[in-house]
Amino acid sequence: MSEILSGPDCATMIEVRAGVDQIDRDLVALLARRFAYMDAAARIKPARTAVRDEARKTQVIANAVAAAQAAGVPEAIVADLWEQLVEASIAYELAAFDRR
C-alpha cells in the first residue's frame, strides 16, 4: 500500500482519492466512538425526556463552528453537518434508551 499524502502534496487524482478514502474510514471510526458515548448517555440518563437537551445541542454546534473557524474550514458547512449529526445522535440515543 502506498503512503497517503497530504492534500497539498497530491499530484494525481489517485493520490487525492486515496487520501479522501482514508479520511472517510477515519471519520467512520470516530463516529463509532461518538455513538458509543450516545449508548452511554442512554444508559445514564434517568428519563427519556432527558435525551433532548436543546442548550447542549446549541453548545455542541457552537463548539464545532468555533473549531471550524480556527481550522479555516467553512463555518456554515460545519454548522449544517453538526445540525444533522446532533439530530442523528439524538435519534440514535432515543432508540438506545428505548431498548434498555
β-strand amount: under 5%
**Unreliable stretches covering 5 or more consecutive residues:** none
User: What is the CATH fold-level name?
Assistant: Chorismate Mutase Domain, subunit A
Rg, Cα atoms, Å? 17 Å
> What is the CATH level 1 assignment?
Mainly Alpha
> Can you tell me the number of structural domains?
1
How would you classify the helix and strand content by structural class? mainly alpha
Q: How large is the count of helical segments? A: 3
Number of strands: 0
Order of helices and strands: HHH
Q: Describe the largest sheet.
A: none
Shape: elongated
CATH superfamily: Chorismate mutase
Measure the end-to-end span.
43 Å
How helix-rich are the residues, as a percent range? over 70%
What CATH architecture do you see? Answer: Up-down Bundle
Mean pLDDT: 96
Enzyme class: isomerase
Binding site for substrate: 17, 34, 45, 93
Organism: Sphingomonas glacialis
EC number: 5.4.99.5
